[in-house]
Automatic annotation (TrEMBL):
Species in which this protein is naturally found: Natronorubrum texcoconense
Signal peptide region: none
Protein name: PQQ-like domain-containing protein
TM ranges: none
Residue ranges annotated for the Pyrrolo-quinoline quinone repeat domain, each copy included: 74-261
Amino acid sequence: MAGTANADREEEREQSLEFQSIPLGEIETARSRHMWTRSAVHVVSGGDLVVTGEWDGTVTAREIGSGSESLESRWAVDHPDHAVGITTIESDGGDGTVVVAGRGETGTIAGYDAATGEQEWRYDTVDDLGEAVKDTVFYLPYVVSIETGTDADGTQRLYAAARRYERDGETRQWHSTVYAFEPDGSIRWTYETDASPIAMDLDETGERLAVGYNRCMGDHDTGLVVLETETGDLEWTWDPGTEGDRRVGDVSFDGDSIAVSSHGDKRGYLLGPGGAERWRVDLAIETDIGDETLYAYPNHATANDGRVTFVTGNTYAVESRETERRHPNEHRIATYDVDGELRWDDEVRGFVHGLDDDGDTVVAPCAQSFRVRDPETHAVRWFDRESGLIGIERLEGIATAAAAADGTLAAIEEPVEYHDEGQTRGEYALHVASLE
């Protein structure tokens, strides 16, 4: 009963928050294996508005307050695609713009007035990536990441990375574009490759953009590029130097350093200017257990104020995708200091779709662990960068998206039915609480 023992230990440490919840409608029930990103949530700066994006394209902005009126809808719109990413562009004297990234036929990025939901601008990445050659989700144009940052001249701009995949027999190919948008939705510059971007991050000055590429199987053969944001010019590149097309899982700036989670060798890196390696740590490297060699991908990285946090995912076997065993560092969160020394580590217990942070607090939405199928893994966990676990909110369904800003935490729950149970757990819902 290892699962029960782990849960008991967590309960001894966890902090309780008062969450408010609201149903989001219907969505296909998840199964034992984790699914692709189907939902998005974003807390607007100031902490008084939360915006959700749903798989059917519905985007809803809700007021955050107290009492029965909290989470009332301010506006709702239909995005042209599955709404899978959300951020905001702030404006002087105005309510700003909510930007939504899509996965679908058009791969649309659109800006909506934060006060009214009126569409201010729209850009269809399909015009650059090309149309899907097969009617399946994995072939659709997909805006995988959007980031906003303020340049040296005080202008807040939007950056986005989009990709499309296609396969013809044994030939596999990616088409991708990185965009810099002006606040009005016009394009400042683009950067195109034949690799698959997976993550981006801006440095705090707004002068450099780091782009991580997960799959490199064409002419573009490097896992990390750093671009100058004024022009889109390439400043420098870095690669784990491993065989195969797997390269980078996530990137995160901390001052002039960049934390990188490597899918190539399953390690975590901290890089200095120009890609100089400051340190590297083994996260879920290939490990012999019994007659199998197992590994797990380091999927996420977040760095701030001299602390670097990595999160690993599911176990795989070198000779087969199927295994009953588990890598010892599967579903683990670990934080290191500026010298690469481990500060603390913990279990997240289920697959984490993505991380968010609110200063010193890191939030992890934890979904199912398909090899164990333990509902106790379904939770939102939040951690202090310096000391580790702060709190856990357990869910009946799986937590697939989370956001934190200005003392507000928001998470999305999706229903799940394990293939060998026949029981639906949880619902499609939004949960919001104050971290203060």
